[in-house]
Amino acid sequence: MPVQMGVTIYAFYWLGTWLDDRYQISASWGMKGLTMLGVVISLYQFIRQVNYINKHE
Asked: What would the 3-class secondary structure string for the chain be?
């Protein structure tokens, strides 16, 4: 699960950085916003997986 979280967060970070470079967004808002979105999505996935594991034990 930690690797999955890291990959998800890094993918959103990379996408945000790419968008900032592509569209010349000032103050790196694309990177910051998409990184935070990646954190939220990875936490949601983590909580969902833990609930599934606890339910099926």
From this structure: CHHHHHHHHHHHHHHHHHHHHHHCCHHHHHHHHHHHHHHHHHHHHHHHHHHHHHHCC
Rg over alpha carbons for the chain, rounded to the nearest Å, is: 14
Residue indicated by tokens 């808002």: 29
Distance separating alpha carbons of residues 32 and 29, to the nearest angstrom? 5
| 2-55 pLDDT, tens digit each | 999 999 999 999 999 999 999 998 899 999 999 999 999 999 999 999 999 999
Q: In the structure encoding, which two tokens stand for residue 40, read together?
A: 């939220």
Is the pTM higher than 0.85? Answer: yes
